[in-house]
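Good morning C.,

I know you're traveling, so I'll keep this short. The sequence:
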Amino acid sequence: MLMALASNPYLEEGGSTSPTSTSTRPARAMQISVGQPGLSRDELREAFDLWAQALLAMGRREDAERTYARLLREDPYVPAPTAAPKVRECFERAKRSVWPPPSVKLSSTREGPHVTVTVFDPWSLVQRLRFLQATPDALVEAPAPLVTERVYSATPTVHAQRLLFDALDSNGAMLAHLELPVEGAVVATALEPAPTRRSR
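The tokens, ready to paste straight into the viewer:
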């Protein structure tokens, strides 16, 4: 906080005012502050939070929600402010408007045979990523891939034709699903499901 204030005089001006002040100066200072180039992530979070709180103190709740929403669109993982209940409620309303729960999404990138899956999870609802591989004969759950900061890495086996990823919550409910063909699969019908036998 002290480093942020030292590098941004508008943060210093707004941060030195009580959050309950009805003066327009803190809100104006924070509005200017968020437009300064080269701000760090923490500085931006601080500035938007102080701006929203200043607007709330002036009775401008909708403007405060819009301020939080503007921040959340760019930074979905902003933690809820440790402030008065009305501030936390304003923040949550803004977050729900931008990212209606669960808002979980899976995306992927490839590097050779390796697949990296990124989990977008602004509400921190995902507890497990289920990883399955489809071969010509079966659909097999593989060991859970390694995770680092919502990023999972997996490598298909030689017989895999498709990779399936399911983001699951604490109750095992599926929040998002991603299915990927395996590039260069060893069988000619790599993108085709295995035929099912009809019972006579």
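Safe travels,
E.
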